[in-house]
Amino acid sequence: MATLQLLQSSVLAKGGHFSFSARKQPPWPWRGGVRMGLREDGPSVAVVGVTGAVGQEFLRVLSDRDFPYHSIKMLASARSAGKPLSFEGREYLIEELKESSFEGVDIALFSAGGSISKKFGPIAVHLGSVVVDNSSAFRMDEGVPLVIPEVNPEAMAHIKLGSGKGALIANPNCSTIICLMAATPLHRHAKVLRMVVSTYQAASGAGAAAMEELEQQTREVLEGKKPTCKIFNQQYAFNLFSHNAPIVSNGYNEEEMKLVKETRKIWNDPNVRVTATCIRVPVMRAHAESVNLQFEKPLDEDTAREILKNAAGVVVIDDRSSNRFPTPLEVSSKDDVAVGRIRSDLSQTGNHGLDIFICGDQIRKGAALNAIQIAEKLL
């Protein structure tokens, strides 16, 4: 999957034709001779940043889930404008993102970086679009819902499609989404007082260029060459290092502080104590997280396991006898977040603590899928 994405990006960058297909046979969903997705009663959709890794995944998820749309605009920078793109059996031309791009657009899916979102998000809202933004630009703004549909759908209940009023909805950070998919069902049962998170984050979190660099560095190191370091300032292949986000005054980096602040907002609990250490690891796609939880009420590991087995969007992989637990590889390109290593924290008494290990696809549930699920809530 990662190699396919890199090839698609390369073709576009060289001015070639990008044929998008979410399925192999057939390459778009047909039912009774009618192409699904394209429907007269569906909303008009715009995908901003369509040539990026997450933008490509937006299209894949839209197709996989038969998301209904009346029309769809493929928006990107001037560099990509005019290039052809095939989606669900129909040819499109990628359009340059402009202020006028959102006229008549019901839902705008943004994944083009914070600066683009800050400039064009409010413009789209003013023109009546509901913007689902994947950047960090608006996440902590008061009045902007920060939503994981399985966790806090009520935060966006006041936003109605077709009301004539535009709105902003923020997609949380990928690490926050993956963490809270597993932690929230337990939090609802016993209330989390403190959460300690260590993340092991894949190249996908830094975009297609980082994935390509990891692949290139791996070849270079195996061939005894000096690795190319353009995206990161140090060797990534066969190495790991502190997340490359800027360090803030308290010694945490911005990625770690996102977990802290976003968890409090999503759970609507300013008092929950969260600390995080975020690490880049040489994995192509899908993040892993080790999470320690302290609860207000007792919660034993067997009850926790049953809660997680019944949680939406979560799959339990917790086979102690064969030492089989979640891995990034087996959740890559999958919708569900996998959780395992479910065990009582020996450092806490009275079943007031648990350790769990989580893996989730950063591009899928950590970005594109969550955004499309938000859009589905608007229908």
Automatic annotation (TrEMBL):
<dbReference type="InterPro" id="IPR005986">
    <property type="entry name" value="Asp_semialdehyde_DH_beta"/>
</dbReference>
<dbReference type="InterPro" id="IPR012280">
    <property type="entry name" value="Semialdhyde_DH_dimer_dom"/>
</dbReference>
<dbReference type="GO" id="GO:0009089">
    <property type="term" value="P:lysine biosynthetic process via diaminopimelate"/>
</dbReference>
<feature type="domain" description="Semialdehyde dehydrogenase NAD-binding">
    <location>
        <begin position="44"/>
        <end position="159"/>
    </location>
</feature>
<comment type="subunit">
    <text>Homodimer.</text>
</comment>
<keyword id="KW-0791">Threonine biosynthesis</keyword>
<comment type="pathway">
    <text>Amino-acid biosynthesis; L-threonine biosynthesis; L-threonine from L-aspartate: step 2/5.</text>
</comment>
<protein>
    <recommendedName>
        <fullName>aspartate-semialdehyde dehydrogenase</fullName>
        <ecNumber>1.2.1.11</ecNumber>
    </recommendedName>
</protein>
<dbReference type="GO" id="GO:0050661">
    <property type="term" value="F:NADP binding"/>
</dbReference>
<keyword id="KW-0560">Oxidoreductase</keyword>
<dbReference type="GO" id="GO:0019877">
    <property type="term" value="P:diaminopimelate biosynthetic process"/>
</dbReference>
<keyword id="KW-0521">NADP</keyword>
<dbReference type="InterPro" id="IPR036291">
    <property type="entry name" value="NAD(P)-bd_dom_sf"/>
</dbReference>
<comment type="pathway">
    <text>Amino-acid biosynthesis; L-methionine biosynthesis via de novo pathway; L-homoserine from L-aspartate: step 2/3.</text>
</comment>
<dbReference type="GO" id="GO:0004073">
    <property type="term" value="F:aspartate-semialdehyde dehydrogenase activity"/>
</dbReference>
<dbReference type="Pfam" id="PF02774">
    <property type="entry name" value="Semialdhyde_dhC"/>
</dbReference>
<keyword id="KW-0457">Lysine biosynthesis</keyword>
<comment type="similarity">
    <text>Belongs to the aspartate-semialdehyde dehydrogenase family.</text>
</comment>
<dbReference type="Pfam" id="PF01118">
    <property type="entry name" value="Semialdhyde_dh"/>
</dbReference>
<feature type="active site" description="Acyl-thioester intermediate">
    <location>
        <position position="174"/>
    </location>
</feature>
<dbReference type="InterPro" id="IPR012080">
    <property type="entry name" value="Asp_semialdehyde_DH"/>
</dbReference>
<dbReference type="InterPro" id="IPR000534">
    <property type="entry name" value="Semialdehyde_DH_NAD-bd"/>
</dbReference>
<keyword id="KW-0486">Methionine biosynthesis</keyword>
<feature type="active site" description="Proton acceptor">
    <location>
        <position position="287"/>
    </location>
</feature>
<dbReference type="GO" id="GO:0009088">
    <property type="term" value="P:threonine biosynthetic process"/>
</dbReference>
<dbReference type="GO" id="GO:0046983">
    <property type="term" value="F:protein dimerization activity"/>
</dbReference>
<keyword id="KW-0028">Amino-acid biosynthesis</keyword>
<dbReference type="GO" id="GO:0051287">
    <property type="term" value="F:NAD binding"/>
</dbReference>
<dbReference type="GO" id="GO:0009086">
    <property type="term" value="P:methionine biosynthetic process"/>
</dbReference>
<dbReference type="GO" id="GO:0009097">
    <property type="term" value="P:isoleucine biosynthetic process"/>
</dbReference>
<keyword id="KW-0220">Diaminopimelate biosynthesis</keyword>
